[in-house]
Design a protein that fits this description.
- The complex is a heterodimer of chains A (222) and B (401).
- Chain A has 222 residues and is α/β, with parallel strands linked by helices.
- Chain A has seven helices and ten strands.
- In chain A, the strands form two sheets. A six-stranded mixed β-sheet of chain A has the order 6-7-8-3-9-10, with helices on both faces. A four-stranded antiparallel β-sheet of chain A has the order 2-1-4-5, with helices on one face.
- The mean pLDDT of chain A is 90.
- Chain B is an alpha+beta fold and 401 residues long.
- In chain B, helix 2 packs across helix 10 and helix 2 runs antiparallel to helix 11.
- The mean pLDDT of chain B is 84.
- The chains are: A alpha/beta (222), B alpha+beta (401).
Chain lengths: 222, 401
Amino acid sequence: MIQLNNIYRDFQVGDQTVQALNNINLTINQGEYISVMGPSGSGKSTLLNIIALLDHPTSGQYLFNNQDVTKLDDNALAKIRRENIGFVFQFFHLIPRLTAAENIEMPMILAGINRRQRQQRVKQAVASVGLSDRASHLPEQLSGGQRQRVAIARATIMRPGILLADEPTGNLDSHSGIEIIELLEALNKSGMLLIIITHDHHLGKRAQRRIHIIDGKIAPEK
Amino acid sequence: MTISDTFQQAFLSIRSQILRAALIVLAMSIGIASVTILTTLGESARRYIVNEFQSLGTNLVIVLPGRTETTGGQPPLFGETPRDLTLDDANALLKSRYVAAIAPINVGSAPVSSLGLERETTILGSTASLRRVRHLKMAEGRFLPDIESDKSLPVCVIGQTIKREIFAKQKALGQWMRINDRRFRVIGVLASEGESIGVDFDEIVVIPVASAQALFNTESLFRILVEAKSKSAMYKAVGDIGKIIEIRHEGEEDITIITQDSVIGAFDEILTALTLTVASIAAISLAVAGVLVMNVMLVSVAQRTSEIGLLKALGASESQLIGLFLAEAAILCLAGAVIGMLVGQFVVSVLQIIYPEFPLLIPGWALMAALLVSLTTGLIFGVFPARKAARLDAVLALAKH
């Protein structure tokens, strides 16, 4: 499903070139549960951003469903993101002026799905994350765990094949964190490819496949 | 993303920044209101003047004695004074087949009196055709009788003010009125028409032209009003008049011919230019509003960086983001335009109440133009912030929290 070949990503910091990713080779298949771990600044987020098509590698080949996506234009990339990739962030990134339901609806608005179908799917999604009674609340009226559940509902509303989570529990207490992880794992069990970036070794160990990144390189998998 | 969704999302984001939105709308509406009001004033003035000239008559040609022109050669130290226009000249104009009617006019000032009440006023000598040529309306009685123009007759037609002042509490019709030392019988009273470019027919006494010539002891006419048979005949009539007078005046075309059209045209042009000038000055405020739109939109983009990054991550393309921000600018500008037009309409209505005799009308083209200009301004000044938003690096935008 995802194949990275000799991926490099350089950043220019002042006069210095920093290699955030250094010759990454990675193949990820449908339905996997992967944790990406590594110290700060090791390049985990950069890797996630490249997989999510938000960032372009400096060199290398990225095959997404056997299609070379490094040469696609902005519109084509946006379409792939919209239809295939769901994103869960550490800081939730809900739009503050929109209600929980409206936040969940947003990807479908961008995809041009009609209103009736949107409302139906939002209703199901809200129920599936257990927030039916909070659907018309604004983000500021929700707890951290609830916010992250809204974010997960939003990330999965387009039924993507891939779910990317960047420190999804980093901003939550341990109890809510476990709930969120269990929710994500349930989605993985239903067939979604789940990639979690985390600092937390306990969380990382729950994944079947663990990728350690150190200084922009993947450490040999155990 | 459908258009209605784009506008709805834009609307939601405007609603979350009410104060900022209100400022843009205010600036835009001031611009639109001033453009609307000023074009209305200019356009109404133009219409008013053109109407005034049109109401002077139909296909009117005015013949004046003397010639105004700049020629080379000697200054007119030894030049002859222009020949007078006479009644015979006037009657000769009827020979042209393009002329429908003529009204010779003689003007002077004289005291008029009746039963001890006296005042000085303008005496107009003319013929029965004056009524037709100048579209005069009667309030009472009849106009001058249709007699040979060289016959004098002791009858007069008076204006409303003269009637009120000379015949204060009695019937004017059939009374004798003294003009200078001659007596005239009042046979008609003109209907009030208000001021009509220069001549106030309310303060005038009309008598047969031959009587006026005798009264003021002069053969020469003040001018001749000519009504041409049609609009196209007007220019042919002008040529004929020139030729006829030239023959009668020993080969000298020593008259000035003014057509109603040329006067109206000149005023029309001047006032249109004036309207456009004033409107352009007002349009500067629209440009200022545009800059404000840009400024506010830039702030909005800066404040919503992480939201823009999120939308990109959710699969918004650059064109969708540009669409969202432009829709915001368009909504704000249109709201400003509508409010501005309402304010303009309100001010014009108030002015209309203060000056009821001056017909004010907001021209349709001005409304359309105001709407278009505000929308264009908003979009032009909105493009830069919108592109800036669309080009944001999603990774950096998401990292900013």
